[in-house]
Specification:
By secondary structure, the chain is an alpha/beta fold. Helices cover 26% and strands 35% of the residues. Strands 3-2-1-4-5-11-10 form a 7-stranded mixed β-sheet, with helices on both faces. The chain has a 4-stranded antiparallel β-sheet with strand order 6-7-8-9, with no helix packed on it.
Length: 247
């Protein structure tokens, strides 16, 4: 399969795959960070928006929200979920917007989909260009030095008389700027089962490296990865939320 084949071919099951994610808690946390650091206005873009669940919450909070993704089937579903929003088929490493925005988000560690440090740097520059003065860029990230390649997450879900098992895990060799996200989906019916495997190339970066990449463009704030409370990063965990204010 190609790097995007799993998401394209199984877009019908993407929401099922993410059924255990608390989109509302994530969206509300970032809304609170925007209230703290933002410019009191509410135009919003969600990078790698998928089927649009975060966009839906921001619209419900009163934002003028939009999204972009590299997979059209995802965007088709996002448009059904959020008919008020504008969606565009773009790569977040080199996107453009018609007007500058107040808030740009990137949830679910999707910033790592930039394939290498150069592409990540391009993404940061594109975000900076797309934000108004005082605009905020929020995203979550995992430090490459804290990745346990032997660990994974798994959950089951039922749909259309089938049982699905979704499994994913980060893999990093211990050196370099590339890591991968390995995914598998098992679909079992009464008569047969199917399994899909995919591996996504992703950028490996440390929190320290990322702060240096952001510093020329933003005032950088780092928080513990906790969507229930806003706690400054204690510099020990490798799973954090960034809130970056355009200089």
């Amino acid at each position: 399969m190609s790097a995007n084949a799993l998401y394209t071919d199984l877009s019908d099951y993407y929401d099922l795959m993410c059924a255990d994610i608390d989109y509302q808690a994530q969206s509300n946390c970032i809304r609170r960070l925007h209230q703290i650091f933002g410019n009191n206005t509410n135009t919003h873009l969600d990078l790698a928006c998928g089927t649009g669940p975060h966009v839906r919450h921001f619209i419900d909070y009163g934002y003028q929200s939009s999204g972009l993704d590299i997979n059209q089937p995802m965007l088709d579903r996002a448009a059904i979920r959020c008919p008020e929003a504008q969606f565009s088929l773009q790569n977040m490493s080199e996107f453009v917007v018609p007007e500058q925005l107040d808030l740009i988000t990137c949830f679910l560690y999707s910033i790592h989909y930039c394939d290498g440090i150069a592409k990540l740097s391009d993404c940061i520059a594109s975000v900076h260009k797309a934000l108004k003065a005082g605009g905020v860029f929020c995203f979550n990230v995992v430090d490459k030095n804290h990745i346990d390649s032997s660990s994974f997450v798994e959950h089951n879900a039922e749909s259309e008389n089938s049982v699905f098992t979704f499994r994913s895990g980060w893999h990093y060799s211990g050196s370099g700027e590339k890591q991968s996200l390995k995914l598998s989906i098992n679909k079992a019916t009464a008569d047969e089962s199917f399994i899909w495997h995919d591996e996504h190339r992703m950028v490996a970066v440390s929190i320290t490296q990322l702060k240096e990449l952001l510093k020329p463009y933003f005032e950088v704030h780092v928080f513990e990865h906790d969507y229930e409370k806003i706690t400054p990063w204690g510099e020990k965990s490798g799973n954090v939320i960034f809130a970056c204010v355009k200089i």
